[in-house]
Write a structure and sequence with these properties.
This is Exocyst complex component SEC15. This protein is mostly helical and 787 residues long. Helix content is 74%, strand content 1%.
Length: 787
């Protein structure tokens, strides 16, 4: 239920108070807005209390009061007020007069200022026209600047000043076209700026393509110049190494060699015959960088260079038929290609991908290795191998100097070296074998000093002794040399082989140890297989003592050659490392020497056997030999040996003669011993034993007369045994001290065999001539040594 609100009711005094308060605020405030604001609450109260009439009545009363107050105030100041009104009236009259005068003056001014206003209007119009003209001029100038810049851009593009043209286009787009974009030509020009940029890019791209074609065409000339310069460096460095052993270990492109070669610097890209201007490439890179399209150019350039590399390889997929000229042309192209790549790589601030260049290089190396391998397959010409090695080595050294990896190519060189070594061995193996087979085993004869010098210059001879140079030429000419023609011919081939070998190995500074070892093995193989062993095989077909003695002399000279060759090899490799070289062929020739001497001994022994066939011993003799003379066959045999040694084998050195003489005498001793030890005779008498003892004493005396210590002990065992068996003190053999002093070489088993034959004779014959004491001694010793 709504509650009725009670209307407010104001008493007359309250209404009067509100009006007084309003009057007070009106008097204090100078703003009408404030009066209205103070009036608002009163009006609201009138409305709410519905006491309009009371308020109006109270307002009339309030106004009447105030008027009364005003009249009271005026009544007190009436004269002053009247005076003030009179003054105001006079001022008003003056003001009206002044107003009329101002109006008159205004009319006069209006009349006189009408012309000025017209002129001012005309002036303003003129100024407005001038401003329009200035604006038009400014606009035309802006347009002209734009058109001028467009013309300059076209001129710059025509003059191939592409970077400046791009800068002008940038300025045109960002600065000069903006003020005139409301004109159609400016909008058209703005839209054509990308086309102009594309035209610039296409222009520099065409220039780059043309440059790449020119660079490819010039690659061979660049490569040829670089390879020729490296060959010259190699020759200079080789000459320096020959003069200064201290730099022998240094190689081409090493720090020492680079320091020496600085004054001979050669620029293969800029010289009297070749000039490659990289400006088109640099300009293209710069333009693409400006256009923020560097990656696009990199990919395009990379693809083009890879295509050029493949084109180069496809043109020379194989060198069939293989020739050094074709190989040189291929290597020149490759060197030129990769020198340009190296220059671009190091001068374009990572424009060229190093990995891509390395991939191209690795692929090129693989193709070169395959081409060389296939081209040399079946080749048997050492000169072609040598030329190939020289070309490839120069190629390697050239590109190694530009920091390219050459491991594959070094492996190729080592492969070429191994194949060349095998080829040389095959070639010289045939030569050595033929030289040995063609040898007539006769002393080589030289007719004059010139021939002698030629032979001496190629042969290794002892520094002293009977076979030294001074001793050999002493007798005069014509001169029979101690060796046959086999020796100097083999020396020539050995020197040629070594020279060709080291000629090929030149430049392998880091592989000298392997190269020296391969050469040593190769020389050993040639000397052992083709010389020493061929001589050994021929020995079985030769029976002539003179030829055999010539072989001995030849083998001795080959031993001298081996010793000198060891020294020579050390000298040849002395600039690489120290140490000694030992050839196994020296031992092989020593074995061949022994076999040859044994062959001589064997042939002499065969002849000696014929003398022994004439031997006749009466093993059951009852009487001692009448004289101390030896048997006739022994005297003939010794005469034969002496004749052989003094005539047929005269050219043998003393130690070899001693070897042969000792061998022959040892064979003689063996045969004489066999008479005692063989099954027959089964019985021997004391007097029969005396005949053999007489011959042995004679032989021992003959050997002693030779005064050669190497022969003194040949008949010692036989002599001691016969002295024991024919002497009176047979029991001394059982005495250790006496046996050691007089019969140290005598073997018990052999004494047993002879004593058995003596005992058999004693038992078989009652008239053996032996005393009881003798028989007892024989039986005692036989019994003692049989235990």
């Amino acid at each position: 239920m709504a509650h009725n609100r009670r209307r407010p009711k104001f008493s007359p005094s309250e209404i009067q108070s509100q009006l007084a308060q309003l009057h007070l605020f009106s008097s204090l405030s100078s703003s009408s807005t404030s009066d209205i604001e103070q009036l608002g609450p009163i009006l609201l109260n009138i409305h709410k209390s519905r006491q309009q009439n009371d308020y109006l009545k109270a307002l009339k009363n309030f106004v009447a009061e105030k008027e009364a107050e005003i009249e009271a105030v005026c009544a007190r100041n009436y004269q002053d007020f009247v005076g003030s009104v009179s003054a105001l009236l006079r001022v008003r009259q003056g003001t009206v007069s002044l107003k009329h005068r101002v109006v008159e003056l205004n009319e006069e001014v209006q009349k006189s200022g009408g012309g000025v206003a017209d002129k001012k209007k005309a002036l303003l119009d003129a100024r407005r026209v001038g401003q329009n003209i200035d604006d038009a001029i400014d606009t035309l100038q802006a347009c002209l600047r734009v058109l001028d810049m467009a013309s300059k851009v076209a001129k710059l593009i025509e003059d191939e000043k592409f970077f400046s043209a791009l800068r002008q286009l940038e300025d045109l787009q960002t600065t000069h076209l903006k003020p005139v974009l409301h004109y159609p030509f400016a909008s058209l020009m703005l839209s054509s700026i990308p086309t102009s940029r594309n035209a610039i890019r296409e222009s520099v791209t065409r220039s780059l393509k043309a440059w790449m074609y020119e660079a490819r065409e010039a690659s061979r000339a660049v490569g040829k110049g670089a390879l020729d310069a490296m060959e010259a460096r190699g020759r200079r460095w080789a000459a320096r190494k020959r003069k200064e052993s201290s730099v022998g270990l240094a190689k081409i492109n090493g720090p020492i060699e680079l320091g020496v070669s600085e004054r001979h610097e050669y620029n293969p890209l800029e010289n009297d015959t070749v000039h490659i201007d990289f400006k088109p490439l640099y300009q293209c890179i710069h333009i693409y960088d400006t256009l923020d399209a560097r990656e696009e150019l990199q990919l395009s350039y990379q693809a083009d260079r890879r295509a050029q590399a493949f084109l180069l390889l496809s043109q020379t997929a194989s060198l069939t038929p293989f020739s050094l000229t074709a190989l040189a042309a291929l290597l020149e192209e490759i060197v030129g290609f990769f020198l340009i790549e190296s220059h671009v790589l190091h001068t374009t601030n990572s424009f060229r991908s190093e990995q891509d260049v390395e991939d191209l290089w690795d692929g090129m190396c693989e193709r070169v290795v395959r081409i060389v391998d296939e081209g040399l397959a079946g080749c048997e010409d050492p000169e072609v191998f040598l030329g190939t090695k020289f070309k490839v080595l120069t190629f390697v050294q050239t590109l190694e100097g530009y920091s390219y990896s050459v491991n594959q190519l070094n492996n190729l060189l080592l492969t070429l070296f191994e194949r060349y070594s095998q080829l040389l061995q095959r070639k010289f193996s045939g030569d050595f074998e033929q030289i040995v087979l063609d040898d007539d085993h006769q002393s080589m004869v030289v007719n004059d000093a010139e021939e002698f010098e030629k032979v001496v210059s190629v042969s290794w001879l002892p520094a002293s002794g009977e076979w030294s140079v001074s001793e050999l030429q002493a007798p005069g000419f014509p001169l029979a040399l101690p060796f046959s023609q086999t020796y100097p011919l083999c020396c020539i081939d050995i020197r040629s082989f070594t020279e060709q070998y080291y000629q090929f190995s030149e430049g392998f500074a880091e592989h000298h140890r392997d190269i020296d070892d391969v050469l040593r093995k190769a020389l050993d193989n040639l000397l052992i297989k083709q010389v020493s062993e061929n001589i050994q095989r021929r020995l079985q077909m030769i029976n002539n003592l003179s030829q055999l003695s010539q072989i001995v002399v030849n083998v001795l000279f080959f031993q001298t050659a081996c010793s000198d060759l060891e020294t020579l090899l050390v000298t040849l490799r002395a600039t690489q490392r120290g140490g000694t070289i030992h050839l196994d062929s020296l031992a092989s020739f020593q074995h061949t020497l022994t076999l040859t001497q044994d062959r001589i001994v064997s042939n002499i022994s065969q002849k000696m056997d014929s003398f022994f066939e004439e031997a006749e011993y009466n093993w059951l003799a009852t009487q001692p030999p009448p004289t101390n003379e030896a048997s006739g066959y022994l005297q003939d045999l010794i005469d034969f040996l002496s004749t052989v040694m003094m005539s047929v084998l005269i050219q043998l050195p003393e130690f070899s003669k001693d070897y042969v003489y000792r061998g022959a005498l040892s064979h003689c001793a063996m045969l004489l011993m066999s008479y005692l030890l063989d099954r027959d005779p089964q019985r021997i008498s004391d007097n029969g034993l005396m005949y053999l003892a007489n011959d042995v004493r004679w032989l021992a005396a003959h050997v002693a007369s030779l005064q050669n210590e190497r022969l003194n002990d040949v008949f010692v065992e036989l002599h001691q045994m016969l002295a024991l068996l024919t002497g009176p003190n047979l029991h001394d053999f059982l005495n250790p001290e006496a046996r050691q002093m007089h019969y140290s070489r005598v073997q018990t088993a052999r004494v047993h065999t002879v004593l058995t034959k003596l005992a058999a004779h004693y038992n078989a014959s009652y008239n053996s001539g032996a005393s009881a004491r003798r028989r007892g001694a024989v039986e005692d010793v036989l019994r003692a040594i049989s235990r």
